[in-house]
């Protein structure tokens, strides 16, 4: 009775609390904190302009702005960057574009220069235009934007195009009209709240043949200042893409209904278990029960038998708990507005630092599981927990970096920041993993409710429709369908020129995703036990594995039909970075699935009177 009461009441109270929190999340889907003070500029004051990089969704290889040879100053000065900005491939450098507060610069009066391009440089310009590269420039830390249509709705894309192809001819946008939007403070100072570009061409076409004669290109700009009513705190709003809000609601409603239905089903299962939670295994008793009700009872002497290779299992679940705690903190910080787009690279920096700090969680969880399964090599368990996961992450990232370095892309991490990541791993995360393992090993080992038999029980051959692989594959559809809509928008944000930073919605869906993953893991475990199959430890990874497989298939579909990568190097970068994200999803799902099944199995056997 207490088990049913606590379980049913726990699910109901959890769902009620979650629904109340979702209302807050949806009411503040675009919440973010500026996290910096507005820069007040006086009239005719110079505003810092930084050229960043050239980006393309068709290559995934950002390149240096200097390769454009747009009359760069001599010498070129570079802005200091954070770790997150370096990981994002940013490279802030000075340019000859000069903008002064409230000073309108007419056509041909701004930076006015002519640059000669030889045949190799012309070929490079053609390649950049053919791959739809866009120029990234920042004014007062605000990226330049251009107005375009996205699925029929007006949106602002970051950067402006370098040129376009007209009837097989390459046209260069050599004239850029900048529009700077501002508002005035009570002291009469200027706050910049918008930075737009309108690129055009003055009839500049690149030659079709490889001419040995240098081709001159005349670059020039104009600047206009426009008063705006946009508050400085909301100046990033125009970069957000909020398309398909109805889809968000429909997807969330469907996922909430699924989570509620699964919770009700689990409560029914607990009610049925409560009716027979005190049993004695005798032949006369077993004849009175049907197969579904006695299956999980029969394997009571084997259900807590240690699985093979449990060292690897404990390390995987420990690092998964570390990833899960990192993701949870990131989503909470994003939902309350601390991961502001105004701080470039804040998401990457926060993820790296928080993951390192959460090493204490990974070490603790891994050691507790390993000790419970009877492991004695605790030092090796801690070392593997500190090494295996980060090695996989760095290996996938290094594959992308090798491509970046070979293509001379700005996304290739320099030696200094790379060794900084190694230092964060070995100097911060690894010691915290050892600390977590030390704290876990000081506690007494958790005892199983039922002692395993000395001789393992024979496992009957399952029917085709009750095979664990088939059931896990079907159950995995539910977590995937929960996150499918948000996966699309997140992938679109990663590989397009749009910003999708609605952490309230993402956090709400993440909560449902974790809840449904836990519920389907419990159901899959229960059906397996009723089939007298006690090998549930490793089977908890089946549902996460199939869910990640479905996500991978979708990302391949997105690569082929949406991105249409034109370079093999871009495909390698896409697959390596996508693989990195899939490993993250698998690990956090594995931690949720494993602990959900462990709690479930403990609950049903701890209250059973086994004779």
**Can you count the helices?**
16
Helix content: 40-55%
Tell how many strands the DSSP assignment holds: 16
What is the average per-residue confidence, as pLDDT, rounded to a whole number? 81
Largest sheet: 6 strands, antiparallel
Poorly predicted runs of 5 or more residues: 1-9, 18-30, 278-293
Structural class: alpha+beta
Any idea what the shape is? Answer: elongated
Q: Termini, distance in Å?
A: 21 Å
What would you report as the Rg, rounded to the nearest angstrom? 29 Å
Describe this structure in words.
The protein has 611 residues and is an alpha+beta fold. 51% of the residues lie in helices and 14% in strands. The protein is built from 16 helices and 16 strands. Strands 2, 3, 4, 7, 8 and 11 form a six-stranded antiparallel β-sheet that branches. A four-stranded mixed β-sheet has the order 6-16-14-15. Strands 1-5 form a two-stranded antiparallel ribbon. Strand 9 (145-150) and strand 10 (153-158) form a beta hairpin. The longest helix is centred in the C-terminal third of the chain and has 39 residues, at 568-606. The protein is elongated and about 90 Å long. Mean pLDDT is 81; it is low at 1-9, 18-30 and 278-293.
